[in-house]
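--- STAGE predict ---
source: upstream dedup step, 1 unique chain passed
mode: sequence only
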Amino acid sequence: MREFGYQRADDVSGAVALLAADPDARFLGGGTNLVDLMKTGVERPARLVDVRELPLDGIEPTADGGLRVGATVTNSDLAAHPEVRRRYPALAQAVLAGASGQLRNMATVGGNLLQRTRCGYFADPSRPCNKRAPGSGCPAVTGEHHNHAILGASDHCVATNPSDMGVALAAFDAVVTYETLDGPGELPLADFYLPVGDTPDRETALPPGALITGITLPPAPVAAHSRYRKVRERASYAFAIGSVAAALDIEDGVVREARLAFGAVASRPWRAHAAEAVLTGAPADGDTFAAAADAELAAARPLPDNGYKVTLMRNLVVAVLTELTEEAAR
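--- STAGE serialize ---
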């Protein structure tokens, strides 16, 4: 590991100024991903600016009925918060589906948004990777890719985003807030992650040096009837090979509103707008759910070893939507 400096920030403006003074510095929250990448040499910051003690650890209601979550709230505290569990249960379920209890106690909301892909080629500095070393190639396209993207990928990168939390946030139209030297700003989560295209090294639309200060969840009554389901390769904690965050509002057997997002199938949490369009106004039954999944997965472009994900995601969508429908009928 490269030797590095360390400094604890006292306030948000001071943290932003410290990073601006050193282009090789990185913000440090829980460190559950960044420190691992520093150990392998993927990340080599000259300085860490510790933001863990900044006053960004609150969860509070907004005036319009949403929730504002501070960037240094731990994943454990987010999942346990009574208003998160009551208003956005799929978000609490998604967070609890990620990592171990010990990691959730350390990991922060802001850091979760910025965690890097677990693609083995990205994690190995001795191998080419366009995301880590632009222009070096993407050996995953013809190599090991059984857990890689089927939606929105390109010849330059087929890695997936590893976040469970981000999938639920995508379904609920979360907005990321940040601070820069020029003042505060915000990005809808739909615009936060950049399409992979031919620049997979550019992962987010955050301005250079920006510090994430929190997430705002808009009011969404449908979110109270939501669920997150994750498929992984082992029973203990593991990254998803496919996941779904779904919310349904059903009246007289007809879907009035639907929210649907997929995880582990693209370089970013994948909002399933095509599926939502099929669901809205249609009967809440298995045929509709299968048609909705097919509409979204029509855009899938699997590689030789990850075509199973198309079937997996179709079955997962139908199962989760069926469970929500049965729950609404009780």
